[in-house]
């Protein structure tokens, strides 16, 4: 957008808005909209609840595969091509699903939509972070994740607002129609970002890739794995836990997801600010403590109090974990930014698939859903522990 390594407030706003909007599209209108849609699709007779769960699994698998593809396509010149392409794939797969009740086609579309989500969720923030680093504004990078929180509310509003007007496959039309202009505008803005195709060190030499795993990144990867497993349990099962533990007609039966959404929206700004004030690594450790307390609350107080605390504390932290970890990884290995980001999101995606599977094994073994949240507590404790083994970026690079 400019040949000099500087950016005025208008440029910063445009870039961050574009990033937030593309995440709103792929995560809010792609992934999260399926949660409020599912009960309506089952009630319409499009498929059963079990089939709906299988469709969700295909989407999760696609997300993991998309993040793995982003490891391969991590260079800036590749991102400039792949980012618009996969935004287009999101739009096309959403349009396809508006036209069919065939379970195989729906599953394939949701799988491919998940692939697009995984690629874009890695590449858009990674590209923006590289652009911001060149302008000494890396501390603003987390603001792009505001789009995820807003996407929660937008997707819920689209489903509720059109509930009596549409039926079956038609229920996907609002997401498809809204995705088209937003995806196009966001892609056009991000393609214009001027970031060097190949990175150079302080002496001007081209930097080549070094091993992705080392003494600095391994504990960060392990910490992030704990975060992925820990947060996915409440984000998947919190509304169901409310239904199982609260009396019929209780206001929180549909309220826990709204609480999560409302606390998610300001979370990127909050953790962005805390990271800038106290340092990203101390902020990440604090983030883990708060998130762990939230999941623990659902175990210790299996009623309204625990549900509210879990929704509020997890909603206000899980995106902070993402943005802080991505930034710490970039600081530890400046030349590995997009590649490291992709590997972390792939790991996060894998642990998100493991969480529901472990919960199923727990329930099949006679455990309760409330006690299954203890898996999330243990995972977050694991993540917090390894967060203390991650070295400070300045000290690590001074040794390299």
Automatic annotation (TrEMBL):
Membrane-spanning parts: 12-34, 54-74, 81-99, 111-134, 143-166, 221-242, 254-271, 306-325, 337-358, 370-390
Membrane topology: Multi-pass membrane protein
PROSITE patterns in the cross-refs: SUGAR_TRANSPORT_2 (PS00217)
The protein's name in its UniProt record: MFS transporter
GO cellular component term, pick one: plasma membrane
Keywords assigned by UniProt, alphabetized: Membrane, Transmembrane, Transmembrane helix
Organism this protein belongs to: Marinobacter nauticus (Marinobacter hydrocarbonoclasticus)
Subcellular location: Membrane
InterPro entries the UniProt entry points to: MFS_4 (IPR010645), MFS_trans_sf (IPR036259), Sugar_transporter_CS (IPR005829)
Major localisation: membrane
Alphabetized Pfam families for the sequence: MFS_4
Any one GO molecular-function label of the UniProt entry: transmembrane transporter activity
């Amino acid at each position: 957008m400019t040949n000099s390594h500087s950016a005025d407030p208008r440029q910063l706003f445009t870039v961050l808005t574009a990033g937030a909007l593309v995440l709103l599209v792929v995560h809010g209108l792609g992934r999260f909209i399926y949660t409020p849609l599912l009960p309506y699709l089952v009630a319409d007779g499009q498929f059963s609840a079990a089939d709906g769960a299988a469709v969700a699994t295909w989407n999760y698998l696609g997300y993991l595969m998309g993040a793995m593809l982003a490891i391969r396509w991590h260079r800036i010149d590749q991102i400039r091509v792949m980012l618009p392409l996969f935004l287009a794939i999101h739009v096309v797969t959403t349009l396809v699903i508006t036209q069919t009740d065939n379970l195989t086609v729906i599953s394939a579309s949701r799988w491919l939509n998940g692939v697009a989500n995984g690629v874009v969720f890695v590449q858009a923030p990674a590209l923006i972070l590289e652009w911001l680093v060149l302008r000494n504004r890396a501390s603003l990078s987390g603001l792009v994740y505001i789009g995820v929180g807003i996407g929660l509310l937008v997707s819920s509003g689209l489903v509720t607002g059109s509930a009596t007007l549409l039926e079956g496959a038609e229920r996907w039309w609002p997401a498809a129609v809204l995705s088209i202009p937003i995806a196009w505008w966001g892609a056009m803005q991000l393609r214009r970002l001027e970031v060097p195709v190949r990175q150079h060190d302080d002496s001007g030499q081209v930097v080549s890739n070094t091993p992705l795993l080392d003494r600095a990144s391994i504990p960060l990867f392990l910490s992030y794995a704990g975060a992925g497993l820990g947060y996915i349990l409440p984000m998947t099962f919190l509304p169901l836990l409310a239904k199982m533990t609260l009396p019929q007609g209780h206001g929180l039966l549909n309220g826990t997801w709204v609480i999560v959404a409302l606390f998610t929206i300001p979370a990127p700004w909050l953790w962005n600010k805390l990271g800038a004030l106290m340092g990203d690594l101390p902020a990440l450790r604090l983030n883990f403590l708060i998130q762990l307390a939230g999941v623990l609350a659902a175990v210790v107080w299996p009623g309204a109090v625990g549900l509210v605390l879990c929704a509020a504390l997890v909603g206000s932290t899980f995106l902070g974990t993402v943005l802080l970890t991505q930034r710490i990884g970039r600081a530890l290995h400046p030349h590995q930014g997009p590649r490291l980001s992709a590997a972390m999101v792939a790991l996060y995606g894998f642990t998100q698939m493991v969480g529901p599977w472990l919960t199923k094994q727990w329930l099949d073994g006679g455990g309760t859903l409330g006690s299954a949240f203890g898996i999330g507590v243990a995972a977050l404790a694991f993540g917090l522990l390894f967060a203390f083994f991650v070295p400070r970026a300045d000290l690590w690079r001074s040794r390299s």
